[in-house]
Write a structure and sequence with these properties.
The chain is mostly helical. It has 4 helices and no strands. Pfam families: PP-binding (PF00550).
Length: about 80
């Protein structure tokens, strides 16, 4: 499942642009932030480390995709 499809499950009435700030739009609670980290780890087989836990990494679709690409074993 893509990042966009995952987010669309939670916000079906909102079509997110790649650079929409999901925190500023009020979509993210602390529980959802944990779910988002869990999704990224399990869906893409990545380990999100403490230094990756910056809000900017999770703020937009674009930033989430960039995080996945940076952490992807194929890229390292």
């Amino acid at each position: 499942m893509s990042v966009v499809n995952y987010l669309a499950r939670f916000f079906p009435a909102q079509q997110l642009a790649d650079d929409d700030d999901i925190f500023q739009l009020g979509f993210v609670t602390s529980m959802f932030a944990l779910q988002l980290v869990n999704f990224v780890e399990h869906e893409f087989g990545l380990e999100i480390e403490t230094e990756d836990m910056e809000l900017d990494n999770f703020r937009t679709v674009h930033n989430l995709v960039a995080l996945v690409q940076r952490k992807s074993p194929a890229r390292n």
